[in-house]
Each structure stands twice: as C-alpha cells, then as structure tokens.
Amino acid sequence: MQTEMGYIRNALERSNVERETATVAELAADPSALRLVFAGDVPVLRVEGEALSALLPADAAALPAPTEQVFLGRLDKRPVIAMQIGEAPDLFRDESRFRLIDLRSIAVQGAVPLEQQGMLAQARSLLLWHGNHRFCSKCGAPTVPAVSGLRRDCTACGGLHFPRTDPVAIMLVSQGDHCLLGRQRHFVPGMYSALAGFISPGETLEDAVRREVLEEAGIRVGAVRYVASQPWPFASSLMIGCLGEALGENLTVDHEELEDARWFSRDEVRRMLARTHPDGLSAPVPMAIAHHLLRKFAEGGEAPA
Ligand SMILES: [Zn+2]
Question: Residue 10: pLDDT above 70?
C-alpha cells in the first residue's frame, strides 16, 4: 500500500503550456508524445516492470478516435496528451502489457510512480470538465476547445470558459487529547474520517472550517491552521487540509450529513491508523489527506508533515 498522499506530485512542465503555438493534433503527432488515455473513468496504462505508465505512440494506433483531447504539458520534453475514449479495445483489456485500473486504486496501491499521479489527476479533471462544458453558460451555444484544450470558447458570443477547481475544506478539530471524526454512510464499515465540505462563494477557508463543523457536529471552532492541500480528481476538487481548535465538546450531529460523529482519544487514533483498534475502527488510507491530518494529531499535533 502507498504510504504518501496521492496525486500531489506532478512532474509535468506546464508553466509554458499556454505559450505553445502548436495544436493538440500537432503535439499528438510528435513521435515522442505520451498519452494518458481514459476509457470512461478508467485510465488505460502500459505495464513497465513493477509500475504502470502512460501509453507510448506505438500503442496509440490501436486506439479509437478520442472524444476529447488535451495537451497537459511536457514530461522530460515529451508532450503529454490526455485522451478520452468510450471503451477500451479488447487489445488493452486482454494483453498483459496493458492494464485498466481506476484512479483511486492507483493511489491506494501506488501502482503509478508518485511523480506521475498528479498528471493523471490533472488529465481526469480536465477531460471531465470538457465533457461537461460543451455549451456556453452565458448564451447556450456550442463551445469548442481552445489553447490546446485548456479553455473552451463559445462559437456565438465569444465567451471564454476556463476549467474550474472546487476548493474543499477538510479539517481535524481537536480539544486537548481528543479529536472529532465523522462517518458518512458510503464509508467502508468501521471507518471514521475528518469532516469536510465545499467552501462557499465569498467565504474564507477558516470560516468554511468553522461553519462545516458547527453545521455537521454542533461544535464551535476557534483557531484554524492550514496544513497541506491535495488535488482530488473526483471530479475537480482541491482538498485543503486544516487543524482546528474545538471550543466545546457537546455534539449535535446532523444525521442528514453524517451517519455518526464522535470524539476519539489520541491513543484510539493511533490504533485506527495502525488498524489495531479493538472495535475494528479504522482511519482513511494513506493516499488521502485525512490520513495525514490524523497522523499529525496522533504524533502530537506539531510534528512536521
Ligand atoms: Zn456564448
């Protein structure tokens, strides 16, 4: 199992992407171009020894024409193209040199090198955004990809549409030797995690943390401290991890949002991380930022990440 957060490292050079004058088709025709192909939601990867990696130009001949195609940047000077296809041809399902594996499992297992997980997340979020923005939100006319797929332009009113990232606050609030964790209904049995919620328009990160914890658990939060962030490509979120100071301990759990929420001692959290809790309770896997917020608390709160 991977021990580091997923999707946080991205080896792509993408600072100059907007200045590239070539079209996506021209970049894709480069004999060194790598392809990050998604069949529906699932990456189609090449088996390279113990790890999985992007498809090579020679693999592309067997692929159907993509419905979306985006230039992501350059990896060791090679253009990297994200491609959306419907279904993967049998060749990619049957041959042992290829593998289809979902993005979440890739990060849980560490199936793709850490430095390449970021560009997979980038590809997934951008391809989804294209698929969901075929029409102009100002006038309703069709939009077309522009700037190598990093923007969509309206064919009627000239409106320019840019990919969005949705900020999500994820917070571990604590008081003394106890921290507050919750369970959503879709979690695997026994797992508790940090509370989280989308940041509202016009709201600071700190206020989003305070509002979410008050709404979901009835606890007022004082000081809030940013810890780290993680791209979360389901679909285009950025998880912004914080620690917060609880100002009370009497819970009022919103059971519409959470199946359960309760306080856990530092010792219990250590056991949940180690998967040795006597009641079988567990923490999220290491690829998720919540795991690292819990680890920070378990180690005493102030140790560097
Ligand atoms: Zn328009």
Answer: yes
Residue 300: per-residue pLDDT: 83
Count of all residues that appear for the chain in the document: 305
| d(CA 158, ligand 1 centre) in Å | 6
Distance from the alpha carbon of residue 69 to the mean position of ligand 1, in angstroms: 22
CA separation for the pair 10, 239 (Å, rounded): 16
Residue 13, beta-bridge partner list: 74
Whether 61 has a pLDDT exceeding 90, the answer reads no
- In the chain, what's the furthest Cα-to-Cα distance? 63
Tokens representing 138 are 């100002």
The span from the CA of 82 to the CA of 38, in Å, is 8
Bridge partner residues of 45 (DSSP): 99
Could you count the other beta carbons within 10 Å of the beta carbon of residue 240?
21
What percent helix, strand, coil does the chain show, rounded to 5?
Answer: 25, 35, 40
Ligand 1 is an ion; its neighbours by CB within 5 Å are 136, 138-139, 141, 154, 156-157, 159
CA of 157 to the centre of ligand 1 (A): 4
Phi, psi of 132 (to 5 degrees): -100, 5
Alpha carbon of 54 to ligand 1 centroid (Å): 35
Q: 243 or 305: which carries more pLDDT confidence?
A: 243
pLDDT digits (tens, 9 = 90+) for 226-244: 999 999 999 999 999 999 9
